[in-house]
Amino acid sequence: MSHKSQRHLKTSLLSAALIAAGIGFTGAVQATETLRFAHVYETSEPFHRWAEWAAGEIEERTEGRYRISVHPASSLGNEQDINEALGLGTVDIIYTGTQFAGRYYGPMGIAGAPYMFRDFDHWQAYAESDLFQEIAEGFQDATNNVPIALNYYGERHVTSNEPINTPEDMQRLRIRVPGAPLYMMFPRAAGANPTPIAFDETYLALQQGVVDAQENPLPAIRAMAFHEVQDYINLTGHVTDSLVTIVSGIRWNQLSEEDQEIFREVLQEAAQNNTNDILQAEAELAAWFEEQGNTINEVDREPFRDVTVPYHLGDDADWDEETYERLQALGQ
């Protein structure tokens, strides 16, 4: 046998062995797909930590069929950017505020409206309810993207350099809010001037006096060091806020039913872990901020609630009265 024939025989035998092993030349290259999980939160926050955990779990449970790279801190764009990327399929998974999701399907935003929830237990009842599942299905029908779970983001509070005790104290206050319309409902109800600014630009805006105040949960205030440029943390608790984990419909429809179930289970478990971590942080952070020299201002929330609730079914509400009443009835 010639050398050329021997080489051809060896190549054929190797190919046959790979095919018998279930590998194949094409399969070896395409065995693992890399997905992108984007969010705007810092690496120090639970949301990033549990996104990294979810990435590892999905890779393990799918036996390496999917590897997920996590992109924190607006590295793939701000919240609006990553929502748009999700629809284009250039990002596969995101965390986003329900208010941003509500721009694509109005009822999803109801969970982000100010004073919509009585307390955390009311929020939890909604997160586990048939109502949320129905709204998630409506979002999927409208956008093709798939909401998987709600993550507790925390109660949002106003920070400022002057104490805020009543809605009158917020008159004409220039307050930074995220760039989704529902975030403006509470400041407008209280007579303030809401100013949309990207999350990662807020510290500088406060430092330079572009705005007088901002509002976020305690863990986010610490993570973004807003307490360094604001003296007072006024515990208005005006939004019991959520992030929704969403998978691109383009990616979701490429997954087998088995892999869809793995993604759902892992991302829901990550959401529960985020929720637990935020609850623990909220319980501990007031004392920590006081140690840093900030003033924690306990306020009577009822006057703030009273001026805001009339807006729940006003012009900015992208949900119907039936949905609103069903949400209010949860947990009672």
UniProtKB/TrEMBL annotation:
NCBIfam families assigned to the protein according to its UniProt record, in alphabetical order: dctP (TIGR00787), TRAP_S1 (NF037995)
Family: Belongs to the bacterial solute-binding protein 7 family.
This protein's UniProt keywords: Signal, Transport
Lineage of the organism: Bacteria, Pseudomonadati, Pseudomonadota, Gammaproteobacteria, Oceanospirillales
GO BP terms: transmembrane transport
Compartments (UniProt record): Cell envelope
Protein name: Sialic acid TRAP transporter substrate-binding protein SiaP
One Pfam family of this chain: DctP
A single Gene Ontology CC term: outer membrane-bounded periplasmic space
Signal peptide interval: 1-31
